[in-house]
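Action item from last week, closing it out:
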Amino acid sequence: MVIKKKGLAILGSTGSIGTQTLDIVRSFPNNFKVIGLAANNNIACLKNQIEEFSPKSISFNPSSPNKHFLKHFSHSNILMEDMVKDPDVDIVIAATNGCSSLKPIIEAINSKKNIGLANKESIVIAGKLISQLAKKNDVNIYPLDSEPNAIWQCIKGEDSGVNKLILTASGGAVRNEKTNNYSNLTPEQVLNHPNWKMGGKITIDSSTMINKALEVAESHWLFNIGWEQIDVVMHPESIIHSMVEFDDGSIKAQLSHPDMRLPIQYALFEQKRQINPKLTRLDLTKINQLNFIKIEQQKYPCFDLALEFLKLNETWPAALCGIDETAVELFLKNKIKFNQIYTLIEKTLSTHKPKDNPNIHQIIDSYNWAKDCLLYTSDAADE
């Protein structure tokens, strides 16, 4: 029996999720075929991926100084919005940063392509629009993030009502730091995540807990559940990725070794489990204990701040994501201190003028406004 290979368009192929997705393709060459690869500026990595996977189309930043690396390939540089519409594409992996995947995701949904979603910003800033389009076009959105993916695994096959979703958070690299030392933390220290290997932006967001606030919003839209039914607890070991409490009080948890390839594989196979020798098995006898801790507001002020504006909907989530991207970038360039990420976000959002029931253009405009709205001042630097 010949298995039809699923065609993949991978947006953000050179990033953490993109490269791990390709690792799953390597493990299952008879199940998947790479149709399109999209990257930003990591042209050297993209070149290697093209040579290995022979995609039908590619997309990259035309302003990249290293674009000459690709001159020997016959591929033309196309827009991601065009790549996802290819008839050979079955699943679009959205794994870029920021809102760059938003338009391609909408094009993919309108072309009736299923979505593997790692780019949580897109559904956070345009949750209502994406949810309505997915329902209209009978398109599935598969969560790739470990926590929403864990929820997806827990609710499969259940006919009982869900009372509560419980997301777990590692606390990032700052979980053992004193708050009065935040101003002394270097980017290198905050990038040293104790459990996960991820990209720079999401690693910083893990330590501010903005990433967890975005996952709350993502879960709100993906699972159509009220904000008040989503809890977050600190779980330093990152063994339990999420839990679901059902109406009868039973709680189901998903446990695994912290490896993003497992949720990616689960999504690519559309909830059909596969044996993969490359994935580390969890040995419960080597786990001394599992801890669950209430989130300290003083330690993670960005978490409550982000949730406050995410729940307002309108264009607030877009503005939040835009300014967070800028704040993280400034911190990584040593232009602001770690504790000033909160200050910059708060000051910027205080000037935002939201749009009610926004269309995609207003959403993107609000994102870009916040991303470019540098209210960072010498006063903020001294706080």
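Closing note: Residues 6-143 form a domain with the Rossmann fold fold (CATH 3.40.50.720).
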